[in-house]
Write a structure and sequence with these properties.
This protein has 156 residues and is of the alpha+beta class. Helix content is 25%, strand content 28%. It contains four helices and nine strands; from the N terminus they run βββαβαβαββββα. The strands form two sheets. It has a seven-stranded mixed β-sheet with strand order 2-1-5-4-3-8-9, with helices on one face. Strands 6-7 form a two-stranded antiparallel sheet. A hairpin with a 4-residue loop joins strand 1 and strand 2. The radius of gyration is 14 Å and the shape is globular. The N and C termini lie far apart (35 Å). 36% of the residues are buried.
Length: 156
């Protein structure tokens, strides 16, 4: 069971991953060395918060230069494809059904909702620099703040 103590710290190497995207192509974080990458985790495609977050990132795409955006959730590639198509997101969504990568990033956590406890994804974002290190980490980021935090980090 991962907790926030396992969240990679700023300045540390970002945990590597190879996952299937919405088109069932393999996506490797290591293949993006030389570019900044926003890796963000969200609980479930096409839910209100996740839609706000994804559409907000879509809407700032023209302001983030060649920064790559990768959204990670436990959803299947087929569900991610529907989400991408429905909202015209235009960036990579990858499937982490066994939450292996969410655990490596420390975002697979015990959650509580209406008195019920369960394991799930804590919405978080990580800006990975050109060398594959965590430049900024935003644990428990709000859906609407993800695009503004990304823009602020890229400007600084």
């Amino acid at each position: 069971m991962a907790t926030n103590e396992t969240t990679p710290a700023e300045g540390k190497r970002a945990p590597a991953f190879t996952l299937l995207d919405q088109n069932e192509n393999k996506v490797r974080l290591s293949s993006l060395t030389g570019r900044k990458v926003l890796v963000y985790f969200y609980p479930r495609a096409d839910t209100p918060g996740c839609t706000t977050q994804a559409c907000g990132l879509r809407d700032v795409a023209d302001q983030i230069a060649d920064t790559v955006v990768i959204g990670i959730s436990p959803d299947t590639p087929a569900k991610l494809k529907k989400f991408d198509d429905k909202y015209g997101l235009g960036f990579t969504l990858v499937s982490d059904p066994e939450h292996e990568i969410a655990e490596k990033y420390g975002v697979w956590v015990l959650k509580k909702n209406y008195g019920k406890e369960y394991m799930g994804v804590q919405r978080s974002a990580f800006l990975v620099d050109e060398d594959g290190k965590i430049e900024r980490a935003w644990p428990k980021i709000s859906p609407k703040n993800t695009p503004t935090e990304l823009l602020a980090a890229l400007e600084s």
